[in-house]
Amino acid sequence: RELVETNLVEGWDDPRMPTLAGLRRRGYPAEAIRNFCKTAGVTKVPSTSDIALLEHSVREVLNRIAPRRMAIFDPLEIELTNWSEDVVESLEGAVNPEDSSLGVRKIPFGKRLWIEQSDFREEANRKFFRLKTGGEVRLRNAYIIRCDKVVKDDSGSVIKLLCHVDKDTLGKSPEDRKVKGVIHWVHADSAVEARVRKLNRLFTEEKPESDVERAFTEFFNPNSSEEIIVYCEPSVGDLNPEESCQFERIGYFCRDAQKEKETDSLYFNQTIGLKGDAQKKL
Length: 282
Description:
Helices cover about 15% and strands about 30% of the residues. The protein has about 280 residues and is α/β, with parallel strands linked by helices.
């Protein structure tokens, strides 16, 4: 109550709050909460359960039911030098590979793409399977590309990659070489802008109430919520209000209908990473 009354959070349904309203707005499925309760069980004495147990239940359910989409959080431009400017191809990707009955979604592909900054290195060792200068990588649901040239600004920062696309690799692997890495991407000219609220732990300490000399609000994490702009494939607009999806290779996110009314834009709350360390990608 004190968090709400002192305006440290937006309300009882703030997605950082451990209330049913907050968990729902964050995108935690009811099935996952029920599964967690069954697993934790009932005891005769007060006890606590590790939050990882709840998060495991959430991932398990969302992996099975959440549609997939691609989104870029930290964009790096790619220009395909052997692709025509006026050609935009419509590719297909599974809505959810765990449920083939959901069919496929259309994904536009063209000359200008965006990938994550973290998926490229100018120089890298043999264990780096993403894109590097002179190296190849598979674009998810698309072709294999090779980075031929790096374009930098006056400060020396990489701003664009000039790449060659192997047009004979859609849905199949080349016979003369093996390409291990797969990264996600979006078509720059078709990308849809969305706001994402990245969420962290509400408190800086695991048990803020255990310090008898300090109020638990003193351990409130001021960095528990951060809003950023991301770029998504166009089919994110097909998601229903309050529906969760997986941004491939990043994590699960839920549309926030209330925030969309306030901001007049697509808005997602971060639900949870794909694994315990997946949030480092954000």
